[in-house]
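Researcher: I'd like a structural prediction for the single chain below. Treat it as a standalone chain; there are no partners to consider.
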Amino acid sequence: MKLGFNSAILEGCTFEEVIDFAADNGFSCVELCAWPRGKALRKYAGVTHLDVDYLDVDYIKNYTEEKRVNISAIAYYPNPLDKDTEGSSLAIAHIKKCIEAAHRLNINLVNTFIGRNQHKTIEENLNTVQEVWKPIVEFAEDLGVKIAIENCPMLFTSDEWPGGQNLMTTPAIFRKVFDLIPNRNFGLNFDPSHFVWQQMNYIKPIYEFKERIHHIHFKDIKVYKDRLDDVGVMATPLEYISPKLPGLGDVNWGQYISALTDIGYCGYAVIEVEDKAFESSLKARKDSINFSKNYLRQYFPI
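Model: Treating it as a single chain, here is the predicted structure.
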């Protein structure tokens, strides 16, 4: 596996500064955020380290090659199934720009969300998935690009209630979506932390969906049992959970990485930092990436 980090935590840094930091600190790759420029709709969104509207292909290739840092994937996580049709259309159009950029840069992977209309049932959303996503996946397939959907429910705060803003949250839904869109370039960006707080097994799906795992996230999460006992599982999750650096939460990283080695996964695996304890400054955010790397060093020849 090739260890890197998601660039959202380095918001405010330039493309060059992100790649330099990766090179100077022994990372082999970066998942590079490519949101359209403008106001962020939520925390850790709206970060643009790769501007797909003004893409200087030669410069990006030359800079990353000189620094010996790969771009693991182009990252853009909107809601393409939003009930707001204008917002949905803009998200779909930008996903396609990311796909084209991935093709031109020979990255050939785009990480995103499948989206969800949070006010509709799973079944109602599944009726929309094939209509919206089949053309996107086929467009990517024609360009030799894979799409990896992160398994984050996007159901953390009251504004995302009741259904959340990303449908790909459980193995049962994975199966239904992959039945609707069987294309092999369409798969998962698998993050164990989202299964932990849903009280689900995050090891078993690695074996079942091994052919669909195109990218890996390393993010931990801590469930505060005393808070959960007080508010219950029907509360908004951030009332009883908190994202943490790898090793500081409830994920068993030995079991997780053991399963990845079992299936022969040797692709990109990136640290995603969303730990509130490390948000006070750019230095703290940079330190959080290296703290995560130091913990994961036991599993990587770095």
